[in-house]
TrEMBL record:
Domain ABC transporter, first and last residues per copy: 5-235
Family: Belongs to the ABC transporter superfamily.
Record Pfam families: ABC_tran (PF00005)
Parts forming coiled coils: none
SMART domains found in the cross-reference section: AAA
Protein name according to UniProt: ABC transporter ATP-binding protein
Keyword set includes Ribonucleoprotein: no
Keywords linked to the UniProt accession: ATP-binding, Nucleotide-binding, Transport
Organism of derivation: Paractinoplanes durhamensis
Highest taxon of the lineage: Bacteria
SUPFAM superfamilies tied to this protein: P-loop containing nucleoside triphosphate hydrolases
GO molecular function, one term: ATP binding
């Protein structure tokens, strides 16, 4: 599949009177054509810096970026017409209607007027197009912002937190819009904190922490490689959980104690758990794989942010570390 966006080893250091801050530290990302790609990371992890760097608003200190096969920022003018982006909330004149707003933007950008009706239809604002923007809900304003980015029929649409501040109805409308755009063949890169939403909408995700990629792939792959090996263990009544947990920890297992159960986080081969415990006459009464969601994987991964000065990606470390205990 063709990559619409490729980032390799991106570096960005901010320098101010207060000191030096490394916002991106060898960040990598690949976004494939026709996908909705989720870009996730905690506050301050480098998402906005990445998007602003891509769009030529910030100069990187190192690394490579390509959009639609063209190196940027050097060839940004050649591809800028094919990229639509909302990185900062655009401000609209409240007294203008959305039709007037988009018409003005179309004229200024040399876009033919028929596109105005087409994008209003796409974002579901056609019925309200002749009403003033100040009468719009936040969700409608967000959709107007998306409409403005769609005027030039971009191949790649970049949206920073499009669902920010929206209520559940607004979030659902935004979700439908993303899916419709993707079905029309557009590639969408979407940064968001709303992980349940990302899980519902996105084909692929990239998770960033402390300026580095810590996981990437389809939502299913990320869940499978970072969480599916966790199991919940209950023991026969009367057996001390702590003793069993210590036995497993001594063999390298990551054990979290609950009230009447414990969870083994890196249980690549659950049979090892029963074998190690049975050798000490401790018998398991329940062994259940725990189903993880993106939120728990996100918290786990971004809580274990890469150590300063190490260039290895955490996802590579995690992949090699799985299932290797208790041998
Ligand atoms: N202009 C700047 N000068 C100095 N430091 C900056 C500047 N912009 C961002 N930073 C710092 O760079 C790091 C990454 O910030 P960035 O805004 O890219 O994160 P983010 O993932 O978009 O966060 P959020 O989700 O809160 O928007 C943070 O530590 C931030 O404080």
């Amino acid at each position: 599949m063709d990559a619409v966006l490729e980032i390799a080893g991106l570096q960005k250091t901010y320098r101010s009177r207060k000191g030096v801050r490394r916002a991106l530290d060898g960040f990598d990302m690949v976004v494939e054509a026709g996908q909705v790609h989720g870009f996730l990371g905690p506050n301050g992890s480098g998402k906005t810096t990445t998007l602003r760097t891509l769009l030529g608003l910030i100069r990187p200190n190192g690394g490579r970026m390509a959009i639609l096969g063209q190196e940027v920022p050097r060839h940004l003018p050649a591809v800028a017409g094919q990229v639509g982006a909302i990185v900062e909330s655009p401000q609209f004149f409240g007294n203008f209607t959305s039709y007037d707003t988009l018409s003005l933007l179309a004229d200024a950008g040399g876009v033919r007027r028929e596109r105005v009706d087409a994008v209003l239809e796409l974002v579901g604002l056609r019925d309200r197009a002749k009403e003033r923007v100040r009468t719009y809900s936040l969700g409608m304003k967000q959709r107007l912002a998306v409409a403005s980015a769609l005027l030039k029929e971009p191949k790649l649409l970049i949206l920073d937190e499009p669902a920010n501040g929206l209520d559940p109805g607004g979030i659902r409308e935004m979700r439908t819009l993303m899916r419709n755009l993707s079905e029309s063949g557009m590639t969408v890169l979407l940064s968001s904190h709303i992980l349940g939403e990302i899980q519902l909408i996105c084909d692929q995700v990239t998770i960033i922490a402390a300026g580095r990629r810590v996981a990437h792939g389809s939502v299913a792959e990320v869940l499978a490689s970072h969480a599916s090996s966790s199991v919940r263990v209950r023991l026969e009544p009367g057996i001390d959980l702590l003793t069993a947990a210590q036995l497993l920890r001594a063999k390298g297992a990551q054990v979290d104690l609950g009230t009447d159960f414990f969870t083994v986080g890196n249980a690549g081969n659950p049979a090892q758990i029963t074998r190690i415990l049975a050798e000490q006459q401790i018998y398991v009464s329940e062994l259940t794989p725990t189903t993880a969601d993106l939120e728990s994987v996100f918290l786990e991964l971004t809580g274990t942010a890469p150590v300063d000065g190490q260039n290895r990606q955490v996802d590579q470390v995690a992949a090699t570390a799985q299932g290797g205990w208790g041998q």
